Sequence to fold (271 residues):
Amino acid sequence: MLLGPALIVSAILFTIGVVGVLLRRNAIVIFMCVELMLNAVNLTFVAFSQRLGLDGQVFVFFVMTVAAAEAAVGLAIIIALYRHRDTVNLANINLLRG
Amino acid sequence: MTVRVFLFYTFSVIAIVSALLCITRKSPVASALWLVCAMFHLASLYVLLDAYFIAAVQVLVYAGAIMVLFLFVIMLLNLGRLGPGDMKGPGGKVIAIVAGLVMLGELMVLRRVALPVGLGLPDGVIAAHQAREGAVHAVAQPLFTSYLLPFEITSVMLLAAVVGAVVLAKRRI
Fold:
Protein backbone atom coordinates (compact mmCIF):
# COMPACT_ATOMS: atom_id res chain seq x y z
CA MET A 1 0.00 0.00 0.00
CA LEU A 2 2.77 2.40 0.98
CA LEU A 3 5.37 0.84 -1.32
CA GLY A 4 5.26 3.58 -3.97
CA PRO A 5 5.55 6.55 -1.58
CA ALA A 6 8.28 4.78 0.41
CA LEU A 7 10.35 4.30 -2.75
CA ILE A 8 9.94 7.99 -3.62
CA VAL A 9 11.05 9.06 -0.13
CA SER A 10 13.98 6.67 -0.33
CA ALA A 11 15.04 8.05 -3.73
CA ILE A 12 14.86 11.63 -2.45
CA LEU A 13 16.88 10.83 0.69
CA PHE A 14 19.51 8.98 -1.34
CA THR A 15 19.79 11.94 -3.71
CA ILE A 16 20.17 14.33 -0.77
CA GLY A 17 23.02 12.14 0.48
CA VAL A 18 24.73 12.22 -2.93
CA VAL A 19 24.36 16.00 -3.16
CA GLY A 20 25.80 16.33 0.34
CA VAL A 21 28.85 14.25 -0.61
CA LEU A 22 29.39 16.43 -3.68
CA LEU A 23 28.71 19.69 -1.84
CA ARG A 24 30.79 19.48 1.31
CA ARG A 25 34.53 19.39 1.95
CA ASN A 26 34.43 18.40 5.61
CA ALA A 27 35.31 14.70 5.84
CA ILE A 28 33.01 14.05 8.82
CA VAL A 29 29.98 15.66 7.16
CA ILE A 30 30.67 13.65 3.99
CA PHE A 31 30.73 10.56 6.15
CA MET A 32 27.36 11.49 7.65
CA CYS A 33 25.97 11.88 4.12
CA VAL A 34 27.13 8.34 3.34
CA GLU A 35 25.22 7.16 6.42
CA LEU A 36 22.16 8.98 5.10
CA MET A 37 22.48 7.10 1.80
CA LEU A 38 22.69 3.79 3.66
CA ASN A 39 19.55 4.75 5.56
CA ALA A 40 17.72 5.48 2.32
CA VAL A 41 18.63 2.03 1.01
CA ASN A 42 17.38 0.51 4.27
CA LEU A 43 14.05 2.21 3.71
CA THR A 44 13.84 0.56 0.28
CA PHE A 45 14.56 -2.86 1.82
CA VAL A 46 11.90 -2.39 4.48
CA ALA A 47 9.35 -1.17 1.95
CA PHE A 48 9.90 -4.18 -0.30
CA SER A 49 9.88 -6.57 2.65
CA GLN A 50 6.22 -5.69 3.16
CA ARG A 51 5.55 -7.11 -0.29
CA LEU A 52 8.24 -9.77 -0.80
CA GLY A 53 8.73 -11.37 2.61
CA LEU A 54 10.80 -10.79 5.71
CA ASP A 55 14.19 -11.41 4.09
CA GLY A 56 14.38 -7.70 3.36
CA GLN A 57 14.34 -6.92 7.07
CA VAL A 58 17.16 -9.44 7.62
CA PHE A 59 19.17 -7.60 4.97
CA VAL A 60 18.63 -4.34 6.84
CA PHE A 61 20.41 -5.98 9.79
CA PHE A 62 23.43 -6.75 7.67
CA VAL A 63 23.46 -3.24 6.22
CA MET A 64 23.36 -1.83 9.77
CA THR A 65 26.26 -3.98 10.99
CA VAL A 66 28.33 -3.06 7.95
CA ALA A 67 27.47 0.62 8.55
CA ALA A 68 28.53 0.36 12.18
CA ALA A 69 31.84 -1.27 11.26
CA GLU A 70 32.37 1.30 8.52
CA ALA A 71 31.69 4.17 10.91
CA ALA A 72 34.19 2.83 13.45
CA VAL A 73 36.97 2.28 10.91
CA GLY A 74 36.23 5.47 8.96
CA LEU A 75 36.24 7.69 12.01
CA ALA A 76 39.51 6.08 13.13
CA ILE A 77 40.94 6.94 9.70
CA ILE A 78 39.70 10.53 10.09
CA ILE A 79 41.37 10.78 13.51
CA ALA A 80 44.65 9.44 12.09
CA LEU A 81 44.36 11.90 9.17
CA TYR A 82 43.77 14.80 11.57
CA ARG A 83 46.88 13.86 13.55
CA HIS A 84 49.01 13.97 10.41
CA ARG A 85 47.58 17.02 8.62
CA ASP A 86 45.79 19.01 11.36
CA THR A 87 42.70 19.34 9.18
CA VAL A 88 39.70 17.33 8.00
CA ASN A 89 39.07 19.59 5.02
CA LEU A 90 39.37 17.39 1.95
CA ALA A 91 40.67 20.31 -0.16
CA ASN A 92 43.89 20.15 1.88
CA ILE A 93 44.23 16.37 1.75
CA ASN A 94 45.48 15.90 -1.80
CA LEU A 95 48.30 13.42 -1.42
CA LEU A 96 46.95 11.15 -4.16
CA ARG A 97 46.00 13.91 -6.59
CA GLY A 98 47.72 13.37 -9.91
CA MET B 1 -6.69 8.99 3.26
CA THR B 2 -6.21 6.87 6.34
CA VAL B 3 -4.35 7.90 9.45
CA ARG B 4 -1.44 5.67 8.46
CA VAL B 5 -1.00 7.34 5.08
CA PHE B 6 -1.29 10.80 6.62
CA LEU B 7 1.35 9.96 9.25
CA PHE B 8 3.57 8.44 6.57
CA TYR B 9 3.56 11.64 4.51
CA THR B 10 4.07 13.82 7.58
CA PHE B 11 7.08 11.86 8.80
CA SER B 12 8.46 11.65 5.26
CA VAL B 13 8.38 15.42 4.88
CA ILE B 14 10.05 15.91 8.26
CA ALA B 15 12.75 13.36 7.40
CA ILE B 16 13.46 14.99 4.02
CA VAL B 17 13.61 18.50 5.50
CA SER B 18 15.93 17.28 8.26
CA ALA B 19 18.19 15.64 5.68
CA LEU B 20 18.29 18.88 3.66
CA LEU B 21 19.16 20.86 6.79
CA CYS B 22 21.82 18.26 7.61
CA ILE B 23 23.69 18.84 4.36
CA THR B 24 23.34 22.63 4.38
CA ARG B 25 24.27 23.54 7.98
CA LYS B 26 27.77 24.97 8.36
CA SER B 27 28.50 23.50 11.79
CA PRO B 28 29.17 19.73 11.88
CA VAL B 29 27.40 19.47 15.25
CA ALA B 30 24.20 20.94 13.77
CA SER B 31 24.53 18.59 10.80
CA ALA B 32 24.86 15.59 13.11
CA LEU B 33 21.83 16.60 15.18
CA TRP B 34 19.67 17.09 12.09
CA LEU B 35 20.82 13.68 10.89
CA VAL B 36 19.66 12.20 14.21
CA CYS B 37 16.29 13.85 13.59
CA ALA B 38 16.10 12.33 10.09
CA MET B 39 17.00 8.90 11.47
CA PHE B 40 14.30 9.08 14.14
CA HIS B 41 11.68 9.88 11.53
CA LEU B 42 12.97 7.07 9.33
CA ALA B 43 12.41 4.78 12.33
CA SER B 44 8.82 5.97 12.50
CA LEU B 45 8.47 5.23 8.78
CA TYR B 46 9.69 1.69 9.51
CA VAL B 47 6.94 1.35 12.13
CA LEU B 48 4.37 2.44 9.58
CA LEU B 49 5.79 -0.16 7.16
CA ASP B 50 5.26 -2.94 9.78
CA ALA B 51 8.96 -3.36 10.63
CA TYR B 52 8.77 -2.83 14.38
CA PHE B 53 12.00 -4.52 15.42
CA ILE B 54 13.97 -2.78 12.67
CA ALA B 55 12.60 0.54 13.92
CA ALA B 56 13.81 -0.19 17.45
CA VAL B 57 17.24 -1.22 16.17
CA GLN B 58 17.37 1.90 14.01
CA VAL B 59 16.90 4.10 17.07
CA LEU B 60 19.34 2.10 19.20
CA VAL B 61 22.13 1.57 16.67
CA TYR B 62 21.91 4.44 14.22
CA ALA B 63 20.46 7.34 16.17
CA GLY B 64 22.12 6.08 19.34
CA ALA B 65 25.45 4.41 18.86
CA ILE B 66 26.67 5.57 15.44
CA MET B 67 25.67 9.21 15.86
CA VAL B 68 27.21 9.33 19.36
CA LEU B 69 30.41 8.07 17.74
CA PHE B 70 30.22 10.90 15.19
CA LEU B 71 29.57 13.55 17.83
CA PHE B 72 32.38 12.10 19.95
CA VAL B 73 34.86 12.45 17.09
CA ILE B 74 33.66 16.00 16.35
CA MET B 75 34.21 16.84 20.02
CA LEU B 76 37.57 15.04 20.17
CA LEU B 77 38.96 16.91 17.15
CA ASN B 78 37.35 20.19 18.26
CA LEU B 79 35.58 20.78 14.95
CA GLY B 80 32.59 22.61 16.37
CA ARG B 81 33.40 25.82 14.57
CA LEU B 82 34.68 25.65 11.03
CA GLY B 83 36.72 28.04 8.98
CA PRO B 84 35.86 29.06 5.41
CA GLY B 85 35.93 26.51 2.64
CA ASP B 86 33.75 23.85 4.19
CA MET B 87 31.15 24.29 1.42
CA LYS B 88 32.25 24.20 -2.19
CA GLY B 89 32.06 27.38 -4.25
CA PRO B 90 29.23 28.38 -6.62
CA GLY B 91 30.56 26.18 -9.43
CA GLY B 92 30.73 23.16 -7.15
CA LYS B 93 27.23 23.86 -5.85
CA VAL B 94 25.78 24.00 -9.38
CA ILE B 95 27.52 20.74 -10.32
CA ALA B 96 26.28 19.03 -7.14
CA ILE B 97 22.67 20.14 -7.63
CA VAL B 98 22.61 19.22 -11.34
CA ALA B 99 24.12 15.80 -10.60
CA GLY B 100 21.57 15.33 -7.83
CA LEU B 101 18.66 16.19 -10.11
CA VAL B 102 19.92 13.79 -12.80
CA MET B 103 20.26 11.06 -10.19
CA LEU B 104 16.76 11.74 -8.84
CA GLY B 105 15.37 11.48 -12.36
CA GLU B 106 17.11 8.16 -12.91
CA LEU B 107 15.79 6.79 -9.62
CA MET B 108 12.26 7.91 -10.51
CA VAL B 109 12.53 6.07 -13.84
CA LEU B 110 13.75 2.96 -12.01
CA ARG B 111 10.82 3.22 -9.61
CA ARG B 112 8.33 2.83 -12.46
CA VAL B 113 9.31 -0.81 -12.97
CA ALA B 114 6.40 -2.83 -11.63
CA LEU B 115 6.73 -5.94 -9.49
CA PRO B 116 5.88 -9.08 -11.43
CA VAL B 117 2.28 -10.07 -10.88
CA GLY B 118 1.99 -13.06 -8.57
CA LEU B 119 5.35 -12.48 -6.91
CA GLY B 120 4.12 -9.90 -4.41
CA LEU B 121 2.27 -10.87 -1.27
CA PRO B 122 -1.15 -9.35 -0.72
CA ASP B 123 -1.59 -6.48 1.73
CA GLY B 124 -1.38 -7.33 5.41
CA VAL B 125 0.21 -10.79 5.15
CA ILE B 126 3.49 -9.70 6.75
CA ALA B 127 1.67 -7.74 9.44
CA ALA B 128 -0.51 -10.78 10.25
CA HIS B 129 2.59 -13.02 10.31
CA GLN B 130 4.29 -10.68 12.75
CA ALA B 131 1.19 -10.42 14.90
CA ARG B 132 1.01 -14.22 15.08
CA GLU B 133 4.68 -14.97 15.72
CA GLY B 134 5.86 -11.77 17.40
CA ALA B 135 7.90 -9.05 15.72
CA VAL B 136 11.27 -10.33 16.95
CA HIS B 137 10.66 -14.00 16.25
CA ALA B 138 9.46 -13.29 12.73
CA VAL B 139 12.78 -11.60 11.90
CA ALA B 140 14.98 -13.96 13.93
CA GLN B 141 13.60 -17.07 12.22
CA PRO B 142 15.17 -16.39 8.78
CA LEU B 143 18.21 -14.72 10.37
CA PHE B 144 19.23 -17.84 12.30
CA THR B 145 18.23 -20.44 9.72
CA SER B 146 18.70 -19.47 6.09
CA TYR B 147 21.06 -16.55 6.81
CA LEU B 148 23.14 -18.24 9.52
CA LEU B 149 26.42 -18.26 7.56
CA PRO B 150 26.25 -14.54 6.64
CA PHE B 151 25.42 -13.85 10.29
CA GLU B 152 28.57 -15.64 11.47
CA ILE B 153 30.68 -13.93 8.82
CA THR B 154 29.32 -10.61 10.07
CA SER B 155 30.72 -11.34 13.52
CA VAL B 156 34.17 -11.90 12.01
CA MET B 157 33.81 -8.62 10.11
CA LEU B 158 32.93 -6.76 13.32
CA LEU B 159 36.00 -8.23 15.02
CA ALA B 160 38.16 -7.06 12.11
CA ALA B 161 36.58 -3.60 12.33
CA VAL B 162 37.26 -3.34 16.07
CA VAL B 163 40.90 -4.38 15.63
CA GLY B 164 41.28 -2.04 12.65
CA ALA B 165 39.81 0.93 14.50
CA VAL B 166 42.09 0.41 17.50
CA VAL B 167 45.18 0.05 15.31
CA LEU B 168 44.31 3.09 13.16
CA ALA B 169 43.56 5.36 16.12
CA LYS B 170 46.80 4.51 17.92
CA ARG B 171 49.15 7.41 18.26
CA ARG B 172 52.02 5.89 16.30
CA ILE B 173 50.95 4.04 13.20
In short: Chain A has a mean pLDDT of 88. The CA atoms of residues 31 and 38 of chain A lie 11 Å apart.
